[in-house]
Amino acid sequence: MPNPILPTEDEIRTAARELGLTDPHGNYRPRDRSRIAAAVQAAKQHETAAAAPGGWSTAHQIASFWGELIGAGVDAASTAPLLAEVGRYLLETQGLRLDSDREETTSS
């Protein structure tokens, strides 16, 4: 089974075309192939990480769960105690996850 992260030739060609790296015949320079493939691979890894709820920020996970509860017909007013418990659980098991890529510091 092929690795889903590794880009196919079609994905590389599509990316090269979207990046404007192809000639009039739709071909890219062989020396650019590894850079194009790396860009496609990085984009696929980013999409995979973003799609996994465990990689989401704490707020995003709670908001997503709230949306699912509302979508299932749960009254918005009755979700608050459940969301508070979900938040407590996430903080205990994962710590606070923020959208920022930078490390959060705690004053000593």
Indicate the topology:
Blueprint: H1 9-18, H2 33-51, H3 58-71, H4 80-94
Helix pairs in contact: 1-2, 3-4
List keywords for this structure.
mainly alpha, single chain
- The coarse overall form would be elongated
Low-confidence stretches: none
- The ordered string of helix (H) and strand (E) elements is HHHH
Tell me the β content.
Answer: under 5%
Describe this structure in words.
- The mean pLDDT is 83.
- The chain has helices at 9-18, 33-51, 58-71, 80-94.
- It has 4 helices and no strands.
- It is an all-alpha fold and 108 residues long.
- The protein folds into 2 domains: 9-51, no CATH class; 54-94, no CATH class.
Quick take:
This protein folds into 2 domains: about 10-50, no CATH class; about 55-95, no CATH class. Helix content is about 55%, strand content about 0%. The chain has helices spanning about 10-20, 35-50, 60-70, 80-95.
